[in-house]
Amino acid sequence: MHRRTFVRGSSIALTGVVAGCLGAGDDGDGDGDGSDGDGDSSLPTVAGSLSVVDSPTAVTVRDTVEFDLELTNDGDDDHDVAVSVDVGDERREEVVTVAAGDSETATVGVDTDYESVERGGISLGENEWTVTANLEDGTESGTLAVQDAPVEWYQPDEEKICPVCNMLTEMYEGWHAQATHADGSRIEFCSLGCAVEYWIHPTDHDATDYDGKHEGTIEDELVTIWAPDFTDVDTDPDDGSSAAHPGWEAFIDMREGYFVLDSRTFQKYTTPMPGGSPVCFAEYDDAVAYVDEWDELTEDDIVELEDLADVEAGKRYRANYQA
């Protein structure tokens, strides 16, 4: 038994003829003459079996899903075995040569990267996967849960523009935030105030120019806001900028965090917009400690993600940017 590993950095789905099935100068018509033809270029079905030895049931977005496979050739001749791995609408294809009466193990990787999730055919939540090979017993399937996480934003060759206020999002790193949609599309904002307004009124703000959105993204199917924990924000950094934060790796999932609806952050700190922004905390006790510092705040100003619409937080911070 031998082992092959195919873990690709590329996330472009392969379609059509399997790479490696055609010999040099072959055009796929089966006659080897390099001319166009109507012959069947697919590999024949081989006596044998496919076994998915190991596959994850869950993966964090941006990680690689690896399928460990065992391919067995029960025939009397060596054969090329074409393997296809489909996760959602993304496909990876490889060809493995298996000797007569022998087995090969192989690992095929599918990336849940920017091209596959934000722009491709894999979504957050449950995705169906299928592994097939040109073997008599050559199909297995299952499900894979892609879990959300904060990620480094990526928008090729363009500035990152906040869809609510049209400001550049990187100017105020201590305040910017992300929001994810159910299909994995991700939007970045200059500040939490804009993220809150988008969360409440997503269909009112044009984010169609973002490369990070599927063409069919349903704007109001939102999952969460990723935000900086205010306990990690330096409001007076040495470089003289408005505020500094450890970065996107330290963003917190606001499904599990707390907003403090401070209406005077624009007076207390240098914030991106005149309307200011709420401040966020991973721990409730840290939110309480913050409100205790200011006479105008009470624990009633501490809310969760599901409460934002009820307290009209968008109007509080971005009234001038509402439809």
UniProtKB/TrEMBL annotation:
<protein>
    <submittedName>
        <fullName>Nitrous oxide reductase accessory protein NosL</fullName>
    </submittedName>
</protein>
<dbReference type="Pfam" id="PF05573">
    <property type="entry name" value="NosL"/>
</dbReference>
<feature type="compositionally biased region" description="Acidic residues">
    <location>
        <begin position="26"/>
        <end position="39"/>
    </location>
</feature>
<feature type="region of interest" description="Disordered">
    <location>
        <begin position="25"/>
        <end position="49"/>
    </location>
</feature>
<dbReference type="InterPro" id="IPR008719">
    <property type="entry name" value="N2O_reductase_NosL"/>
</dbReference>
